[in-house]
Amino acid sequence: MADPRIRQVKIKTGIVKRLAKDEVMYIKEVKQQEDKIERLKEDKDLCPHVLSKQVEVLQEAKMMVPDCHRRLAKAHADLVQLMETLEDLAESEEYIEARSILDSVKLEG
Question: Rounded distance, CA 28 to CA 96, Å?
């Protein structure tokens, strides 16, 4: 029977991967929205309401970045903590993948 600890490693690794991907997506969305607003500001015939709505969308996207980053940092710490207790599994494929994901996720910012 498979070791249930390996399942935990796989689950927590998946969470870190998903949150890292989400964070990148939100940062990209903020940049795209900022670019869109700059283009809209150049349109002299634009209704001010349209611009204000786009600014609201930008603010919502900006709020998602720190929230996602906080969740990513927590999931990262959870996985690091789990990995420290499972060094006897260091040769397993799941442990190696988890270590690789942890190394690839940047938590600055």
Answer: 29
Residue type, 48: P
Tell whether pTM > 0.85: no
* Helix residue ranges per DSSP H, the chain: 4-41, 48-85, 93-104
Are 75 and 23 a contacting pair, CB within 8 Å?
no
pLDDT tens for residues 4-55? Answer: 889 999 999 999 999 999 999 999 999 999 999 999 988 888 888 999 999 9
Mark residue 32 as left, alpha or beta (left: phi above 0; alpha: psi -120 to 50; beta: remaining).
alpha
Q: CB of 8 within 8 A of CB of 78?
A: no
